[in-house]
């Protein structure tokens, strides 16, 4: 499988603990990255579409807890969990290599 | 709705429908949520986000459509192959022809700002000479007086290059040093000519072409500055000429033109003058100024009173209207073939879309919108045409070197055809337009399928109704276009035959020709050179198998020099007094008429004794005799050049000869070689053996006389002739091929329409037969249906051809534009072809077994 694009990995992380709708995913990602990563609507739903096609997340309809708005909720699948772990393993290996050659900033 | 939401909605529109169906609502909601929470949306962020992601989604959809199209194609490989092959043929032919049109007509000439360049010709209205070379003295006068043009000039010369190996002969030009500057060119290497090089007595310098430098001197970089021997004199090579210079002047060697006004005659028209319009001057303004100058020069020098000036744009000077017409005609013809092919494929697709109705109905029922279906179907047809177009373009590009090799030299005004971006763009555009064109009608119809009936009937649609009408219309259009092409081809083929059967006035078979240019420094034109040729003729005649040898300043259809001069009779004549007639004249040796097989009608041939300077004798053509003296015997009469008093006495009359072109015959006059020759002469040798067999003997005869003298343009007379018919032959061949292809495709088209209609109507036909219709009637029914379509197409084609005919008139010879037998013949041929195409389906209809047909459904 090809590498997971960064927005897709962020989305997988956001829907890994509980199901979220699009806006919630966006907020979650923004909160987790101190507002550094802001997924625009196109990026967000483009990624969601491909994650769905690849079977890494699943979708079901639901209602907004505080309103009547119908929303689509997304949750990670077993396959998605596996792919996310493979990807993070790959990234941490990369980080290790980077640390070994001193290419990592002190704050990390 | 708030403005912000509206903008968001508009932006989201940029995504493909498939994506919007799924996510548009969510995306709008997202934008609303975020602004409700007071999140500061920066619109730029949103726009960037959409600009980054929307194209990708479109690509995804396109790839899906493509995958589907490819899957469909492989499912019916025969159909796809037929379509691709047809497109490849049509696009290939179009691209090949366009490459030539582009190179000759569209691409700017290889000079700096070519639109500012003009050719300055002389003209003489009283002699009906609209375009004529300029005289050196007039050129000097113009140059002195003009304020609108920067002028330069070049002539024509032959150079024999000796030393460093075999002597070789080249053509080239003496050029005014300003020529490179006027054209906006600079030498490839070294320097061009300076004003000082022009003066009589200046050190002799020359430029050579890059080709000659590479071939003869092995690309030696130290050549510039060295000296070579040209025409027996030493010249210093100062530079390599830019290739574009040869596009204008031709040849491989250039020397500065030296003008000695004291020794020139103002009526000696020997040079080509070119000019660059000064900034802000139009051609019309320059023409006006030059008209005034011509009048002034005429007042000052009465001998040139009748001569005016005629400016030509460079485009017109290079591309003659006939070539332009021929090329545009071929382009139109090949576009016609493409249109026929499109119509045919559209018909095939219509048949298929009828068969696919159910599939399409199912997709519509599942929610595919009409525009999405249309797009899918268009992607299918464009994919087919793209594969065919690519194959065709590759073939065309591949064929360009072949075209360059097979096109006869001098047919096109440029050295060779090359491919550039414009050609590739044309091929790409033609391919896409083709795909849309043949895909549009079937896709449109298919996408408008009526769900209810389609699902119920499962593809059993009738051939009549709107779809049948479109198919009939397409088939008729194909036949109409084929008619136009066939008529054009028939007219051009007849032109070619007429040209080939035209009375030449001489016997070309068994004549070998070549050119010699003995250096004038060694062989004076009025003494040594005639003697040299006399000895050569005797030596050639001594070769076994040679039955005659002679010399001429210009053989018919050759590339030697010939010129025409206004002449007028002395004494009583058939012409009104003081009328000048433009006469083609050339110099020939004794025995020339015998060698060429031109009958001597009256009087006698030249002898070596006809060398008188003060009482020259001439032989004239029958046409000229008739023109000057009517039916009376011209032998013993005399005539003179309009510009000169010296009388020429007529000693003989020869038959008319087509001297310059197969479709042109001009009154001609021959002067005696013994008096004077030209620097470059054509030698003709008649033999009853193979030309190649006597060539070694001919070469050694020349070598024995002068080992430094090269033979140039060694060719048989038949080769020269075939060269001169090259363009009509090419016209006829290409249009013939296009017409044949068009006819074939159109025949397949009408066959397809009928065959399909018969298949669709099997049940109806079975019913008719069950009710007692005889087979003959069924046969008539089907043939009648096909032929009514065919006849409409043919009639439309005849009308169109008659309307378009005029444009062809300049390309025809010996046949009228609206030649009735041609039109009738083509109509009959097409009707027969259409009938044949109807016959197969009709037979199948007549063989329908009513029982089987009725049970089938």
Provide structural commentary.
The complex is a heterodimer of chains A (108) and B (857). Chain A has helices at 6-14, 22-32, 41-53, 78-100; strands at residues 20-21, 57-63, 70-76. Chain A is α+β, with helices and mostly antiparallel strands. Chain A has one domain: Arc Repressor Mutant, subunit A. Chain B is α+β, with helices and mostly antiparallel strands. Chain B has four domains: 3-64; 115-318, no CATH class; 472-502 and 718-857, no CATH class; 519-708, no CATH class. Chain B has 26 helices and 24 strands. In chain B, strands 1, 2, 3, 4, 12 and 13 form a six-stranded antiparallel beta sheet that branches. In chain B, strands 5-6-11-8-10-9 form a six-stranded mixed barrel. The longest helix of chain B is centred in the middle third of the chain and has 37 residues, at 370-406. Chain A binds chain B through residues 22-23, 26, 38, 40-46, 48-49, 69, 71-72, and chain B through 12, 15, 19, 22-23, 26-27, 29-31, 33-34, 45-46, 48-50, 52-54, 56-57.
Features:
heterodimer, A: 108 residues, alpha+beta, Arc Repressor Mutant, subunit A, three-stranded antiparallel sheet, 52% helix, 15% strand, globular, B: 857 residues, 4 domains, six-stranded antiparallel sheet, six-stranded mixed β-barrel, 26 helices, 24 strands, 53% helix
Helix/strand layout:
The complex is a heterodimer of chains A (108) and B (857).
Chain A: H1 6-14, E1 20-21, H2 22-32, H3 41-53, E2 57-63, E3 70-76, H4 78-100
Antiparallel strand pairs in A: 1-3, 2-3
Helix pairs in contact in A: 1-2
Chain B: H1 3-12, H2 17-36, H3 43-75, H4 77-106, E1 117-124, E2 129-132, E3 134-135, H5 136-145, E4 149-154, E5 157-162, E6 168-175, H6 179-183, E7 189-190, E8 205-209, H7 210-217, E9 227-230, E10 233-241, H8 243-249, E11 253-256, E12 269-277, H9 283-300, E13 307-313, H10 314-318, H11 321-355, H12 357-365, H13 370-406, H14 421-447, H15 451-457, H16 466-501, E14 511-516, H17 528-541, E15 546-552, E16 563-570, E17 581-588, H18 592-596, E18 600-603, E19 617-621, H19 622-629, E20 638-641, E21 648-654, E22 668-672, E23 681-687, H20 691-705, E24 712-716, H21 717-724, H22 726-760, H23 762-770, H24 775-804, H25 820-846, H26 850-856
Parallel strand pairs in B: 6-11, 8-10, 17-22, 19-21
Antiparallel strand pairs in B: 1-2, 1-12, 1-13, 3-12, 4-12, 5-6, 5-9, 7-10, 8-11, 9-10, 14-23, 14-24, 15-23, 16-17, 16-20, 18-21, 19-22, 20-21
Helix pairs in contact in B: 1-2, 3-13, 4-11, 4-13, 4-14, 5-9, 11-14, 11-16, 11-22, 12-15, 13-14, 16-22, 16-24, 16-25, 17-20, 22-24, 22-25, 23-26, 24-25
């Amino acid at each position: 499988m090809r590498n997971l694009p960064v927005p897709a990995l962020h989305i997988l992380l956001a829907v890994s603990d509980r199901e979220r709708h699009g806006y919630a995913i966006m907020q979650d990602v923004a909160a987790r990255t101190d507002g550094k990563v802001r997924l625009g609507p196109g990026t967000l739903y483009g990624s969601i579409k491909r994650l769905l096609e690849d079977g890494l997340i699943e979708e079901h309809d639901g209602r907004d807890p505080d309103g009547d708005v119908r929303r689509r909720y997304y949750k990670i699948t077993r396959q998605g969990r596996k792919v996310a772990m493979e990807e993070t393993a790959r990234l941490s290996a990369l980080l290790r290599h980077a640390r070994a050659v001193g290419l990592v900033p002190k704050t990390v | 709705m708030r403005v912000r939401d509206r903008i968001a909605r508009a932006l989201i529109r940029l995504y493909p429908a498939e994506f919007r169906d799924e996510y548009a609502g969510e995306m709008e909601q997202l934008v609303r949520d975020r602004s409700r929470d007071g999140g500061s949306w920066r619109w730029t962020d949103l726009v960037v986000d959409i600009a980054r992601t929307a194209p990708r989604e479109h690509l995804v959809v396109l790839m899906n459509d493509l995958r589907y199209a490819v899957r469909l194609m492989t499912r019916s490989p025969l159909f796809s192959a037929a379509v691709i092959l047809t497109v490849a043929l049509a696009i290939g032919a179009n691209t090949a022809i366009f490459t030539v049109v582009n190179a000759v007509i569209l691409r700017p000439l290889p000079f700096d700002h070519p639109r500012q360049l003009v050719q300055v010709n002389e003209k003489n209205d009283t002699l009906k000479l609209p375009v004529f070379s300029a005289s050196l003295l007039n050129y000097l006068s113009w140059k002195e007086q003009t304020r609108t043009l920067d002028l330069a000039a070049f002539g024509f010369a032959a150079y024999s290059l000796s030393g460093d190996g075999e002597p070789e002969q080249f053509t080239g030009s003496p050029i005014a040093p300003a020529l490179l500057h006027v054209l906006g060119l600079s030498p490839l290497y070294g320097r061009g000519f300076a004003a000082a090089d022009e003066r009589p007595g200046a050190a002799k310098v020359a430029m050579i072409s890059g080709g000659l430098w590479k071939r003869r001197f092995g690309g030696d970089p130290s050549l510039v500055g060295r000296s070579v021997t040209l025409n027996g004199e030493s010249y210093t090579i100062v530079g390599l000429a830019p290739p574009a210079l040869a596009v204008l002047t031709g040849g491989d060697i250039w020397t500065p033109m030296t003008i000695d006004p004291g020794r020139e005659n103002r009526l000696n028209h020997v040079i080509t003058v070119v000019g660059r319009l000064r900034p802000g001057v139009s051609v019309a303004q320059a023409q006006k100024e030059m008209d005034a100058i011509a009048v002034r020069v005429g007042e000052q020098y009465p001998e040139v009173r009748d001569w005016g000036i005629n400016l030509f744009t460079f485009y017109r000077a290079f591309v003659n209207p006939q070539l332009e017409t021929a090329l545009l005609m071929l382009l139109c013809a090949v576009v016609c073939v493409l249109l026929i092919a499109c119509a045919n494929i559209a018909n095939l697709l219509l048949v298929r879309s009828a068969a696919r109705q159910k599939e399409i109905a199912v997709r519509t029922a599942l929610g595919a919108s009409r525009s999405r279906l249309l797009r899918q179907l268009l992607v299918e047809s464009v994919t087919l045409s793209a594969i065919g177009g690519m194959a065709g373009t590759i073939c065309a590009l591949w064929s360009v070197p072949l075209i360059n090799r097979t096109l006869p030299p001098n047919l096109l005004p440029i050295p060779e055809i090359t491919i550039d971006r414009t050609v590739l763009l044309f091929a790409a555009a033609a391919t896409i337009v083709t795909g849309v064109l043949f895909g549009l009608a079937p896709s449109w119809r298919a996408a408008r399928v009526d769900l209810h009936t389609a699902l119920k009937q499962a593809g059993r649609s009738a051939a009549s109704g709107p779809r049948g009408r479109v198919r009939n219309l397409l088939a008729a259009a194909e036949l109409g276009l084929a008619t136009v092409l066939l008529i054009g081809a028939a007219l051009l083929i007849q032109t070619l035959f007429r040209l080939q059967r035209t009375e030449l006035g001489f016997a070309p078979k068994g004549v070998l020709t070549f050119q010699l240019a003995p250096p004038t420094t060694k062989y004076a034109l009025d003494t040594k050179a005639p003697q040299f040729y006399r000895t050569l003729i005797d030596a050639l005649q001594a070769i076994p198998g040679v039955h005659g040898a002679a010399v001429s300043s210009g053989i018919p259809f050759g590339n030697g020099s010939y010129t025409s001069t206004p002449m007028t009779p002395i004494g009583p004549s058939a012409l009104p007094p003081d009328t000048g007639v433009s006469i083609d004249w050339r110099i020939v040796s004794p025995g020339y008429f015998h060698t060429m097989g031109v009958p001597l009608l009256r009087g006698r041939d030249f002898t070596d004794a006809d060398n008188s300077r003060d009482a020259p004798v001439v032989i004239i053509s029958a046409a000229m005799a008739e023109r000057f003296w009517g039916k009376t015997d011209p032998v013993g009469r005399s005539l003179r050049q309009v510009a000169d008093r010296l009388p020429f006495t007529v000693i003989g009359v020869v038959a008319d000869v087509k001297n310059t072109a197969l479709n042109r015959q001009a009154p001609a006059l021959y002067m005696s070689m013994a008096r004077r020759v030209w620097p470059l002469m054509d030698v003709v040798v008649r033999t009853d053996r193979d030309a190649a067999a006597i060539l070694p003997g001919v070469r050694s005869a020349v070598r024995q006389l002068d080992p430094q003298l090269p033979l140039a343009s060694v060719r048989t007379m038949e080769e020269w002739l075939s060269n001169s018919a090259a363009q009509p032959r090419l016209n006829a061949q290409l249009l013939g091929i296009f017409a044949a292809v068009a006819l074939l495709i159109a025949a397949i088209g009408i066959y397809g329409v009928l065959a399909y209609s018969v298949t669709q109507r099997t049940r109806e036909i079975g019913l008719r037969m069950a009710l007692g219709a005889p087979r003959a009637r069924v046969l008539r029914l089907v043939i009648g249906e096909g032929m009514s379509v065919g006849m409409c197409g043919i009639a439309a084609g005849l009308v169109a051809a008659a309307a378009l005919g005029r444009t062809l008139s300049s390309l025809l010879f010996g046949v009228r534009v609206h030649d009735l037998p041609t039109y009738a013949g083509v109509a009959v041929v097409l009707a027969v072809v259409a009938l044949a195409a109807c016959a197969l389906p009709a037979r199948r209809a007549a063989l329908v077994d009513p029982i089987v047909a009725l049970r089938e459904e």
